[in-house]
Amino acid sequence: MFSHIMIGANDVSIMVAFYDVVLSTLGLVRDPHEPANSPAGHIWQRGGERWPQFALRRPFDGRAATAGNGVQISFAAATRQDVRTAWRTAINNGGTDEGEPGLRPQYNEDFFAAYCRDPEGNKLCFVHAGD
Asked: Which of 20, 75, 98, 102 has its CA 20 to 30 A from that of 111?
């Protein structure tokens, strides 16, 4: 299991605005009082839980952030409707479609997922599988 996922961002303000609305549909929130230039970046968590975390910031090395080929960040959704809501919210807020919500039986008979890219090209998946 992981403790956190960190992605790089070139336009931090656009990315924070995107993830604020998209991740809120899954119950993940960012502390609105976090320092603007925190070395840890901007962090989203499930209310009251420390781990796991999703975070973003400008890359430490000062070079441009890039999306990784073959890299995908998958977020668990409590219901199929949550998958639909997260995906639609992403698309309506600067994300691009990579696969509408639906069953993906090639992975498992109950694997319900949707795919998109964030405003900087990182591939995201929202998934609900079983109970």
From this structure: 20
Question: Considering the domain boundaries, does residue 64 fall inside one?
Answer: no
User: Exposed, middle or buried: residue 79 (CB in 10 Å: 0-12, 13-18, 19+)?
Assistant: exposed
CB-based contacts of 121, cutoff 8 Å, min separation 6? 66, 67
- Tell the burial category of 10 from Cβ atoms under 10 Å away from its Cβ (0-12, 13-18, 19+): middle
Helix axes 80-92, 12-24, angle to 10 degrees: 150
List the domain range (segments joined by +) for residue 89.
4-58+71-129
Number of folded domains that form the chain:
1
